[in-house]
Specification:
By secondary structure, this protein is mainly α. It contains three helices and no strands. It has a domain of 46 residues. Helix content is 71%, strand content 0%. The protein is rod-shaped.
């Protein structure tokens, strides 16, 4: 969990409480640091989302199956439905 004191929003709120002109340069520096920290977090999130998206694309390829004689690939749910449908048919034929 992130330390609340490291949160740029918390720092910015504390900074805004001080309104003297002598702190103007300090306020600009802290605001700039807060914006840079936010940008860094957004970039990290974008990288993680892109990596996850690529991983999901490769998993999708591994999770589809084309049964012999079928016209299309089946996802896991469709494949399980097909398997259980065939099992029920075999059980019915045995009875």
């Amino acid at each position: 969990m992130t330390n609340p004191d490291d949160n740029p929003n918390t720092k910015l709120r504390a900074l805004l409480r001080h309104t003297s002109n002598s702190e103007n340069e300090y306020a600009h520096r802290v605001s700039s640091e807060a914006i840079q920290a936010i940008i860094k977090r957004v970039v990290e999130l974008e990288e993680k989302v892109n990596a996850l998206s690529k991983w999901l694309d490769t998993i999708h390829i591994a999770l589809v199956y084309k049964p012999e004689g079928a016209e299309k690939h089946l996802n896991m749910v469709e494949n399980y439905n097909e398997i259980y449908s065939r099992l029920r048919k075999l059980e019915h034929e045995r009875l």
